[in-house]
Amino acid sequence: MQVTNTSGYNGLSVSTPSGVSTQSAYGIFGTVTNSTGGSINRGVYGSVYSSTAAESGQAIGVTGIAGNCSDGYNLGVFGNLLGTKSGASVFGTVGTYFGPPADLKIASVQYAGYFVGNVKITGSIWAASGTITGSDEKIKKDITMLDSSDNIFKLMPKQYRLKSPKELLSEQKPASDTAKVVIDNTPESKDANKYHYGFLAQDLQLVYPDLVYTSADGTLGIDYQGFIPMIIDQLQKMKQTLNEKDDQIAALESGLEKCCGSSSLKSASITTGTTTDLTETKVRLDQNIPNPFSQETKIGCFIPETSGNSVLYIYNMNGTQLQQYSINGKGKQSVTINGNSFQAGMYLYALVIDGKEVDTKRMILTK
Fold first, then answer.
1. In angstroms, rounded to a whole number, what is the distance separating the alpha carbons of residues 248 and 259?
2. Residue 328's domain is classified under what CATH number?
């Protein structure tokens, strides 16, 4: 049957009276049973298209509105994919698309939804088994090794809440002076007041502009997955640096055991001996802070009031004296060591009071 509109707005208008007692009611019911022969079969077909672009009017191929029936059965558009052949219950494309995509031609490939083009969602996406991003080598070009810079440490993470859909709509400018943005029917999310954690796209654009995208309305978005390779690259570099430092420390410790296992120090002005009398007066030599260090470090100590001459000596791993610092005060004291005075490596420092060695510790200087 062909229906041609000669007046009014509708080519075909079908209404089901309210209050009709029936199990199923259809405004329009279209079905093609056992379609064969390679022909194009459409249960319901809607097309609104103009060959030239216009500045007014609306074009909607199919409109579906549903509501206020049993929970779970209020569906504006409902699509079922049956049988064993490949396909999608909902298929959407941008522009004219002849024939199915290559992966829909593969046997036994079925999707609830398949879209060719960008898809925008204003709410959250729930994925029961995760999201997959195509990453096969065959879909990529200009492949090079990543060498991320330390710019990742310049990023400024933020805590924020998202504006509700009503707030965003209320900020929109009407298309004309007489137009009005309708926000009354916009639903509010129960999670609207939750905090989110991330970056401001404007900040990220200054550091990694390739991770920032711009939507049609000028809103900026971030490719958060793009951070993963950069973070891994930095972790690998940190791991390599730590391994190198561990090797250096192990080598220095081995040298220390070989040359200074007896804790004897080469200095004509220092004599080693027991320090029982000094220990009883709570004399103490602390570990330098920080350790290792690159610029400067502080060595703390406690000098009893009854002590006489107190000197802090610095030695290399061969036991050769390099520097000495006189400590004139009593009680808690500290000596600052400038790293520019020495080369990178491991050193020993000893506190000597009244010609007796109190304690010896080691420190590490890095450059």
1. 16
2. 2.60.40.1930
What is the model's pTM? 0.55
Q: What is the number of structural domains in the chain? A: 2
Q: Residue 75 is part of which domain span?
A: 23-119
Q: Is residue 340 part of a domain?
A: yes
> 37 in a domain, yes or no?
yes
Helix ranges (DSSP H) in 165-312: 165-170, 201-207, 227-260, 276-280
Residue 345, C-beta contacts closer than 8 angstroms, at least 6 positions apart? 252, 316, 317, 364, 365
Q: Identify the sign of the CA torsion 339, 345, 346, 348.
A: negative
346-356 confidence digits (pLDDT tens): 899 999 998 88
Quickly count: other Cβ atoms within 10 Å of residue 323's Cβ: 14
pLDDT single digits (tens) 6-50: 655 666 666 666 665 556 677 777 777 766 666 778 888 888 888
Residue 264 lies in a domain: no
Residues in the chain: 367
Domain boundary among 104, 119, 134: 119
Tokens of 341: 């005075």
Q: C-alpha angle 248/252/255, rounded to 5°? A: 140
Structure tokens at 40: 């194009």
For residue 161, is it within any domain?
no
Residue-wise pLDDT for 222-236, tens only, equals 999 998 998 898 888
Query: Is the preceding omega at residue 100 within 30 degrees of 0, hence cis?
Result: no
**Which of 119, 145, 166 is where one domain is finished?**
119
* Rounded alpha-carbon distances, angstroms, from residue 26 to 41, 47, 66: 20, 20, 13
- Report the relative pairing of strands 110-116 and 87-93 from DSSP bridges: parallel
Q: What is the DSSP string of 317-330?
A: TT-BEEEEEEE---
Q: How far apart are CA 346 and CA 63, in angstroms?
A: 77
Contact between 106 and 129 under an 8 Å Cβ cutoff? The reply is no
Question: Would you list the DSSP string of 233-263?
Answer: HHHHHHHHHHHHHHHHHHHHHHHHHHHHTT-
Cα–Cα dist 107/110, whole Å: 9
Mean pLDDT of all residues in the chain?
80
